[in-house]
Design goal:
Elements lengths: L9 E2 L7 H15 L10 E6 L5 H12 L3 E4 L13 H10 L4 E6 L4 H8 L5 E7 L5 H13 L8 E5 L6 H12 L4 E5 L13 E4 L2 H5 L4 E4 L15 H8 L3 H4 L7 E3 L12 H4 L6 H19 L10
Parallel strand pairs: 1-5, 2-3, 2-4, 4-5, 6-7, 6-9, 7-8, 9-10
Helix pairs in contact: 1-5, 1-11, 2-11, 5-6, 5-11
The protein binds N-carbamoyl-L-aspartate.
Length: about 300
């Protein structure tokens, strides 16, 4: 059951984390990945995923189980939200049953933030991806994966390539990489898929070669068909020819350049087999790190001292 101090903390986006909490979460994720022990948490968390997910949903569940927590996966097509119940009422209902936190993935941008504002019950919220909004746990695991893989983010040149404008991963990664001191972030994709404005230290380009040249890190993105006007779909082969990451591109990058992709990957579309399965790919390291990042997030969410990061 929720204690009086529980549940007020939320993880909605990277910018909502202060420097101390961000540093703690990355450090703790890496420590857990290196085998540090974790104390059990007597908590109940609920996965509420309104969009498909393999990695994020399963890794939140595995992380909760590793911490000895109770975890419930709501089957949405069989739940009352299919009968028209609002997310606010669903949240209040689950809190009344003793849930301490909800892990929410929702197709609507900003939905988790709006729920947090309207929340009248004592419940922590973890944003597991909202439309084209934010995906903070992915950004944390991406930072931890790169740092554990030997990439110094301070001073790094990072290319993020593909469907930038619809990608919550791109948005959260940009925030996290800037906070970790990246020297330059290059957002690359077809012109219509680039954001209209970018923060300082971030460049836009519609030239793949320019994006990858001298890069320390390349992050590839899936085309977010589910958030796209279907008439605008590119064909897979044409997209691969123009924007797919292939071994010849990595030859232009820094030696030892690392490749990330949040998954699911579409082989032969945004990434070639040779790159996805090659020695520079950290794609499965990201998946592994995802469980540790989500354990650290639960520890942070339920830290007894609400005013500071634990540990
Ligand atoms: C991403 C997502 O859902 O935003 N995947 C993930 O969480 N691992 C990226 C995507 O779906 O393309």
């Amino acid at each position: 059951m929720a204690g009086p101090e529980a549940g007020r903390r939320h993880l909605l986006d990277v910018d909502g984390l202060d420097d101390r909490d961000l540093a703690w979460l990355v450090r703790r994720t890496r420590a857990l990945a290196a085998g540090a022990p974790a104390a059990a948490l007597d908590r109940t968390v609920i996965n509420l995923f309104f969009e498909p997910s393999t990695r994020t949903r399963v890794s939140f569940e595995l992380a909760a189980r590793r911490l000895g927590m109770r975890v419930v996966n709501v089957e949405l097509e069989r739940s009352s939200s299919a009968k028209g119940e609002s997310l606010e009422d669903t949240a209040a209902t689950l809190a009344a049953m003793g849930a301490d936190a909800l892990i929410i993935r929702h197709p609507e941008t900003g939905r988790c933030h709006r729920l947090a504002e309207a929340l009248s019950v004592d419940l922590g919220l973890l944003n597991a991806g909202d439309g084209s909004g934010h995906h903070p746990s992915q950004a944390l695991l991406d930072v931890a994966t790169l740092e554990a893989g030997g990439v110094a983010l301070a001073g790094a040149r990072i290319a993020i390539i593909g469907d930038i404008v619809r990608s919550r991963v791109a948005r959260s990664d940009v925030s996290a990489f800037r906070r970790r001191g990246a020297a330059e972030i290059r957002l690359a994709g077809p012109p219509d898929w680039l954001p209209e404005t970018v923060p300082s230290g971030v460049r836009r380009t519609d030239n793949l070669i320019e994006a990858v040249t001298d890069a320390d890190v390349v992050v590839m993105l899936r085309i977010q068909h589910e958030r796209m006007d279907h008439r605008a779909w590119p064909d897979a082969a044409g997209y691969h020819a123009d924007w797919g990451l292939r071994p010849e591109h990595l030859e232009l990058a820094r030696p030892g350049c690392r490749v990330l992709h949040p998954g699911p990957i579409n082989r032969g579309v945004e990434i070639s087999d040779a790159v996805a399965d090659g020695p520079q790919s950290l794609i499965l390291d990201q998946v592994r790190m995802g469980v540790h990042a989500r354990m650290a997030i639960f520890e942070w969410l339920f830290a007894a001292d609400r005013s500071a990061a634990p540990g």
